[in-house]
Design a protein that fits this description.
By secondary structure, this protein is α/β, with parallel strands linked by helices. The chain is built from 8 helices and 10 strands. A 6-stranded mixed β-sheet has the order 7-6-5-8-10-9, sandwiched between helices. A hairpin with a 5-residue loop joins strand 9 and strand 10. Bound molecules: guanosine-5'-triphosphate (GTP) and zinc ion (ZN). It is found in: Cytoplasm.
């Protein structure tokens, strides 16, 4: 067994080559970074393929779009998990998210509590994907990890836990193999998350729903799709092929990222 020091620069997901006692890190396919509360940037995991964005009722608006853009920038395939589908109120949320995202990213609807809807997600992960879940506190990420990898046995939050900090005593990142071939990384400090901020350019080129519509696609480099003449995104909004609420969300996020520069 070769021990790896925390300061070695290796992160969960790294591939290494071991010769005797010498450990050499192999080049990374992808790198996922996060921002901590003080603004510091940390590498979360290497060689991930997919980013699972977990949402439930009352998830903050804009969260999914920001996470999709971040994933695409990091060359991870994003997907959306709508959790707690056993709750009646979730059906309206699910219908809305399906309207918005189906066609751009996979959308899975499930209940970890009732163990329903897990199979399509398991099949997706078992296509050889290595992934990580992100989402705001309380959306059900620990419950989902427990349902997908029963041997993990994570502590699931209770309502009384939501009064402050320090719920996760463990800070060790672990890679869990699913029985069908997929892999999930559990990174406690990342679960609540700050993804590294996205730029206006990244937002305008990766915003979900602005992908190619047949022949139409904005072909201008660095187009912000706001006032530029003959921008295809603006045209698609006029034609009703990009819904008004999606364009408004885009403009809201665009102002936000421009203001934070
Ligand atoms: N009704 C219902 N409740 C759920 C489901 N999954 C999780 N919950 C509840 O939601 C609460 C939060 O669940 P967690 O799994 O701890 O959520 P989390 O996203 O890991 O939360 P953090 O660790 O704070 O980031 C708990 O009270 C769970 O019992 C579900 O499928 N249905
Ligand atoms: Zn444009």
């Amino acid at each position: 067994m070769v021990r790896v020091k925390r300061s070695s620069g290796h992160v969960v997901g790294d591939d290494v080559e071991v010769t005797g006692e010498v450990l050499r890190r192999l080049p990374r396919r992808t790198e996922l970074r996060r921002r901590d509360a003080r603004g510091g940037i940390h590498l979360v995991a290497a060689n991930l393929d997919v980013l699972g964005i977990v949402v439930a009722l009352n998830s903050p608006s804009g969260f999914i779009d920001r996470a999709i853009v971040s994933a695409r920038v990091a060359q991870l395939q994003p997907f959306v998990v709508v959790s707690k589908c056993d709750l009646d109120d979730t059906s309206a949320l699910l219908a809305n998210l399906q309207r918005i995202y189906v066609g751009s990213v996979p959308v899975f609807a499930l209940s970890a509590k009732n163990q329903t809807g897990l199979a399509p997600l398991q099949a997706f992960l078992n296509e050889g994907h290595r992934g990580v879940f992100v989402g705001s506190s309380g959306v059900g990420k620990s419950s989902l990890l427990n349902a997908l990898c029963p041997e993990i046995d994570l502590k699931v939050g209770t309502v009384s836990d939501y009064n402050g900090l320090g719920r996760h005593t463990t800070t060790v990142s672990t890679l869990h193999a699913l029985s069908g071939g997929g892999e999930l990384v559990d990174t406690p400090g990342f679960r609540d998350f700050g993804l590294v901020d996205i730029t206006a350019e990244e937002l305008s080129s990766h915003f979900p729903g602005f992908e190619e519509h047949g022949e139409m696609r904005c072909r201008f480099r660095n187009c912000r799709h706001r006032t530029e003449p003959s921008c295809a995104v603006i045209r698609l909004v006029e034609l009703g092929q990009i819904p008004d609420d999606r364009y408004s969300m885009y403009l809201e996020l665009l102002s936000e990222v421009e203001a934070s520069r």
